[in-house]
Design brief:
heterodimer, A: mainly alpha, MetI-like fold, 11 helices, 0% strand, B: mainly alpha, two-stranded antiparallel sheet, 14 helices, 72% helix
């Protein structure tokens, strides 16, 4: 039976990886169609010189960095606070955010923003996307940081306070430095989650604030374009690099 | 005020304003009347909920539950042997786990687009088959339930493998050996020893697949075209094109209710009692 199991596992691995491998492979195709016509970088050139993709990339990076930093700060503070003493209401709310379908999170935020705009002279833009991304990223950050804190020795902090440190001082100068790799890993995860989101973003983004996934979605909808393959390949590589760094950080 | 209060404050404010308040607004909108130009108006009414009983919408709800159930069953059938293999892979355990999770760490949109690229009329499968003269006209591989199912299973398979692997990992290997020593054949060891003991992991995996599948939007939208409408697409449509916010809100709440019921069923099932 173990023989059959190995063959099956290999087949499952092919199923999981093959779609992405062929996608990346055909980004180097010389022709427009799904027939191999020799190696070429023309679709990468086309992708790099596409103004919409460039604008989407800038917007996405901007949103991911701001939302990543904000949710890392908020999530880390929350994880630390809940580590000191459990807060059932906050952890309940964070779990709720994890099980709420993305589409519901998206429309509910859209409803909130539209309601608020009745009183404020504002409209949807990049900042509404940042608010939404922070809202769903806090839970991810909290989970990563909390799991690190579980193995953190409480007595270190008690020692610092016995030696005269304030609670804030003990956190900033003793606890935070030792959980820093996990915090950085959580930040990278938040960055990736924000950069990748399409469903929520498409609902709360302003007309002039297209993100990269929104541009890719529109291109994929329009029809065959190897440019999308090229962009996808770049995203796969970039995400892979970020995740490898994040995992290394968490293991420290 | 103690210091801990200040640590929790930013998260409390953010979740109250941008998670709980929006859900509250959706709850309120679901019992209001649709406005003439979108938006909502008085009076209070349960009309949006009663409209959900319309056969058209019941069919969409039912189809979503059915698709999510089917995806869960497929993930379980495909994922269990994989988890079992990884748990028994000895020193290569971690390598295999990483390899299974790797595609999961790339963009969700890119993973879904990959299937669009493979399945469409001018996509990989149809082009290859046409070149080999197996078929003359492209097969309709895309924009049907099968394509959506494939996309869902592909996206959420790791969600099943991970908890089941964790359960199998903890399982004492000597139990299976004892069964074998006592004359049990591999399949009956599997059925009578391994499966019951890994049941909590299987239950967790099922819920982790079922909930996101039920509320999925992007997969049915891209791979199902306009045909395979699931409840997520219905909600999106009510809030954008149709501009019927009360009905979209009521549908959102029903979707969350069904998800919560699935979660509750898992937590109540005897399989997971000992885990909690």
């Amino acid at each position: 039976m173990s023989r059959a199991l190995s063959v099956y596992a290999a087949a499952a691995l092919v199923f999981l990886h093959a779609p992405l491998v062929v996608l990346v492979l055909f980004s180097f195709n010389g022709g427009r169609f799904t027939v191999w016509e020799g190696f070429s970088l023309r679709w990468y050139q086309a992708a790099v010189s596409d103004p919409q993709l460039a604008e989407g990339l800038v917007n996405s990076l901007l949103i991911a960095v701001v939302a990543g930093v904000l949710s890392t700060v908020i999530g880390t503070l929350a994880a630390y606070g809940m580590w000191r003493r459990a807060s059932p209401v906050l952890s309940g709310a964070l779990y709720l955010s994890l099980v709420t379908p993305e589409i519901v999170t998206g429309v509910s935020l859209l409803a909130l923003f539209q309601w608020a705009f009745r009183f404020l002279h504002l409209q949807l833009g990049l900042y509404t996307v940042v608010i939404a991304h922070v809202a769903f990223s806090i839970a991810y950050v909290t989970i990563v940081v909390s799991s690190r804190l579980r193995s953190y020795d409480r007595t270190l902090e008690e020692a610092a306070m016995d030696l005269g440190a304030t609670e804030w001082g003990a956190f900033r100068r003793v606890t935070l430095p030792s959980i820093a790799p996990a915090v950085a890993a959580a930040g990278l995860l938040a960055l990736v989650v924000s950069f990748d989101d399409y469903v929520i973003t498409s609902l709360v983004a302003g007309v002039d604030s297209q993100t990269l996934p929104m541009v890719i979605y529109a291109m994929a909808r329009r029809g065959v374009s190897p440019v999308v393959n090229a962009v996808s390949a770049l995203i796969v590589v970039a995400f892979g690099a970020v995740i490898v760094v994040a995992e290394r950080l968490q293991k420290r | 005020m103690n210091t801990r209060w200040w640590f929790l404050l930013p998260a409390r404010v953010w979740t109250a304003l941008f998670l709980l308040a929006p859900l509250g607004i959706v709850g309120a909108y679901s019992v209001l009347t649709r406005g003439d130009y979108g938006g909502v108006e008085a009076p209070w009414t349960m009309e949006s909920y009663t409209r959900l009983i319309d056969p058209l919408y019941l069919a969409i709800l039912w189809r979503s539950v059915w698709m999510a159930t089917l995806s869960t069953v497929l993930c379980a059938l495909l994922g269990f042997p994989l988890a079992l293999f990884i748990a028994r892979a000895g020193r290569r355990k971690n390598l295999w786990l990483q390899l299974v999770l790797l595609p999961f760490w790339t963009s969700f949109l890119v993973r879904t687009y990959a299937w669009l690229f493979i399945l469409r009329d001018t996509g990989l499968v149809n082009t290859v088959l046409q070149r080999l003269h197996v078929i003359r006209t492209p097969l309709p591989l895309l924009y049907n339930d099968g394509a959506v199912l494939l996309g869902l299973v592909y996206s959420f398979l790791p969600f099943f493998v991970l908890p089941v692997y964790a359960a199998l990992e903890r399982l004492d290997g000597s139990l299976a050996e004892a069964a074998a020593d006592l004359g049990a054949r591999p399949l009956s060891t599997l059925r009578r020893v391994i499966l019951p003991l890994s049941a909590p992991g299987i239950a967790a995996g099922c819920v982790l697949v079922f909930i996101p599948c039920l509320g999925s939007y992007l997969t049915p939208d891209l791979l199902g075209g306009g045909k395979t409408v699931m409840v997520g697409n219905l909600i999106q449509n009510q809030f954008t094109t149709a501009r019927d916010w009360p009905f979209g809100s009521a549908t959102s709440l029903v979707l969350m209710l069904v998800s919560a019921l699935a979660l509750l069923m898992m937590m109540r099932s005897p399989a997971t009692k000992e885990m909690l």
